[in-house]
Amino acid sequence: MIAPLIRALGRPLLRLRYRIQFEGAESLPVPGRPGVLFLASHPTLVDPFLLVTALHGRFAPILVAGRDHAASAPLRWLARLLGFRPLPDPADHGDRTRQVLDQELTALAGHLTSGGNLILFPGARLARQKVEDLADNSTVASILRQAPGARVVVIRLRGLWGSRFSAASGRRPSIGLELLKGLGYLAANALFFMPKRDVQVAFEEVRDLPLAEGRQAVNRALEARLNADAAPRLFVPYLVWKNHEPRILPEPPRPRVEGNPRAVPPQVRDAVRRHLQAVTGQTDIQDPQHLVRDLGLDALGHRELELWLQRAYGYPCSDPASLQTVGDLLLAATGAAVSLRQGELKAVPHAWFHSPTDLPIDMPDGDTITEVFLKQARRNPGRVALADQLGGVKTYRDVLTAIMVLKPIFEGLEGSHVGLMLPASGGASILYLALLFAGKTPVLVNWTAGARSMGYGLDLVGVKQVVTVSTLVSRLDAQGVDLSAVKHRLLLLDEAGKKISLATKLAAAFRARFNWTSLQGAKPPETAAVLFTSGSESHPKAVPLTHGNILANIRDAAQALHFRQDERVMGCLPPFHAFGLTTTTILPLLLGLRVVYHPNPTEGRMLARIIEAYHATLLVGTPTFLGGIIRVAEDRHLESLRIVVSGAEKCSEQIYATLARRWPKTTVLEGYGITECSPVVSVNREDDPRNGSIGKPLVSVEWAIVDLETGRRAEPGQPGMLLVRGPSIFSGYLNPDVESPFESFEGRDWYRTGDLVRQDRGVLVFAGRLKRFVKLGGEMVSLPAIEEALSQRFLGEDETEPLLAVEAGVEELNPDLVLFSVSGIARDEANAAIRAAGLSSLHNIRAVRQIDQIPTLGTGKTDYRALKALLAEAEV
């Protein structure tokens, strides 16, 4: 009784929102033997109900339901009531799925042969673009081969693409939520006055499908008909008194998995390739190969791959349509197809853009980070402080509430030092402050350093527990990151958070609004953070930074960069990177700048989209990460950027040139810093930027350039060792066996940076690390200078990834210079470029090694220690 009632009421209900016109209905074939196979485009989740109500009276067709129609409870309920026939899913049938599917298709063909009628969506899933992609369809050809003479009718649904029930927003709609919203709009429009969406349902009988040529030929013929006159994405208002005219919206980006497949760990790469070889029977599996067109997978094979990924690596794919190539599959195995890469970003609240002009952008006085933070928060607790796509926008009061909840938990942790292992995020900033308020010294854990380095560092400072979240641990496990050194120390905050009572949270919210006594009386540790050197050329060293070190650095940076009241910072550098900890974790909270985070600095397109959505004005990053953003960004994405601050390594000419050409209003301010210096030492100024230089030292940094040969100050323009001293410089390493980095010069102690610089017209120019020089023929040969000459010759203007590196051989005397290249540069061509750059023959390359990817550290720097290891292995 219910099903006929739904069918009877279906068309009147649909007409409350849709103005439906039928084309070609009068020429539909007469019901009889054999039956009619209706093949429809699938722009929305309402298509099945629209077609069933339209065709039931004459044809009583059975609708063959795919996985989209079983994805939510309301659809499953309606499907059962209306007699939908589901296709088998590997999630239910496992290894027997293909056998069960063949049986089901045979039964459907028999239904057609006996005079029954079917409705099928050959795209197999909800459309992600205005046109259908049928490349992986195999059901139509299979059914028609078993039902000779069956009549085929193509149904084009136009005008629905862009509705709330479509995936035009970039993500699959929630049918239950959209139905509730629809009821609300109907009520608001007094039921009958709701603006109407014009929908055309066009029927066309097809008599010449090339069945004998195989399923691909059949699919191409169906695509041509289903996609004819495809309508654009159309927005139709929901309220009769608002913006009554419909408007065309831009098409959503095609689903894609972002990232570089060459970065996938070897063990993951091998496992994925072996599985594809077993599934497809092909032995030569290459990253660019298309899963359907090149490897021959159909929709079922694609679905089986998706489930295999989830079982093997723990990642559900948010949009299976993004898995197009072998490279996509490799990236998905590392978690790159989860979360927000496909689809639209969450809406940014209006509060994010609100900037009261009476608030000063400066840092309050104070001796500790916690004291300064509380003073800044007191100026306006309701002001927005930070944001990310997972946690949303947080005010200072929200941050205070979270700190008050976490402080008792952290106070109970064993030891004075607690590890913090999180990527850039609002949560990482809050946890860092909560540890300080709990009297614990945060030890920033670099999971890219390797298990041995992590274990050594944590043992060195006595870390018993490391705060993190289970999602990060799962993702790192799937990427092949060895966490054995920290697994037994982990405190999973998301698990611990389940034990926090509602009463505790409400009490914290009350105190955050009315009583900050517990925070004002807190005694933070003397050391504000322990970080570890990058280890690009040696084992990591433990660097303790005091509150005074970091506060002095932030005050100097604020004086040098002149932040504005409407500044919005884009943060992506991990907190274990000194540059990220100071400039995008602590500085914004203490100065009152809004900061939005994204956890993965290698996801260039997502970062570009977040910059656009949040109107970020200041981007801080390393050249490697900046280059990744620039390479994939559209012009509109970075229009809001006022300043790009580049540090941690030399900024390439390609990045300068691309920004100047595409975003001329954006100023690049390159700087120089060292972990031991909290970290910024010098930076270019906005009123006098000098491309290729590292700018002027900060105001409180004393500096000297010392000639390596004479031990005296170098002449202006001549390179020498950079020595620095001042309140932002640390006091010494925690490692007991590490040589002191301080030396006496002109009667005072200075920190020896290990870097060579020269002074040029009032600014400093970086000349390279001393360890990156090799003595050949009595001359100091600069490896960075060789890399720069080769990059200018062999890297295009828009190529910003590290594609080459130069390292010296393992011999102590007169080592060979070896070029590591991704693109296969010939030695003769490399040496010709070196000569053209004006370098002597001592700089010539002796050997070239082609590798899949230049290894990098988690900070984005080239990992020269890994390259040295490759050379050492070759010698064995």
TrEMBL record:
The residue ranges of the Phospholipid/glycerol acyltransferase domain are 36-160
Q: Domain of life of the organism in this record?
A: Bacteria
Record protein name field: Phospholipid/glycerol acyltransferase domain-containing protein
Q: Which Pfam families match?
A: AMP-binding
Q: Which species expresses this protein natively?
A: Geothrix oryzae
The family database entries (InterPro entries) matched by this protein are listed as: ACP-like_sf, AMP-bd_C_sf, AMP-binding_CS, AMP-dep_synth/lig_dom, ANL_N_sf, ATP-dep_AMP-bd_enzyme, Plipid/glycerol_acylTrfase
**Matching PANTHER family:** LONG-CHAIN-FATTY-ACID--COA LIGASE, NONRIBOSOMAL PEPTIDE SYNTHASE PES1 (EUROFUNG)-RELATED
